[in-house]
Write a structure and sequence with these properties.
Layout: H1 3-9, E1 16-18, H2 19-26, H3 30-38, E2 45-47, E3 50-54, H4 55-66, E4 84-86, E5 94-97, E6 103-106
Antiparallel strand pairs: 1-3, 2-3, 4-5, 5-6
Helix pairs in contact: 2-3
Length: 107
């Protein structure tokens, strides 16, 4: 979706969204929204006891999620017989092939 399409879809919401409103838009629980805020994925401003998320920030977050890579972070292939490699930075798994060519994987 384009930025304009997101703006139109979210036109009924205020410019500064609460965690509950963001949860409703993303169709997740509020706990997940607080987790995303804590991880820094969605920037928020604390006003009193509540977090507020700018609608434009949420739109940017949604657009970045739409652009997500089509390539998987981890691939363990039969073609890698005898090779041991790690994807610790992307998914934390270590993959290697046994002498028989069967892949062995540990996370």
């Amino acid at each position: 979706m384009t930025k304009k399409e997101y703006r139109k879809a979210l036109s009924s919401y205020p410019e500064a969204l609460t965690a509950s409103e963001v949860a409703e838009i993303l169709r997740v629980c509020t706990k997940t929204v607080y987790k995303l805020i804590k991880q820094g994925e969605i920037p928020a401003v604390k006003i009193g006891r509540e977090n507020r998320i700018s609608k434009s920030v949420l739109i940017s977050y949604l657009r970045n999620k739409d652009k997500g890579s089509t390539n998987p972070k981890c691939v363990c292939s039969e073609n890698s017989a005898g090779v041991v490699w790690t994807s610790g930075r992307s998914c934390g798994s270590v993959c290697g092939a046994s002498e028989t060519g069967r892949k062995e994987r540990s996370a």
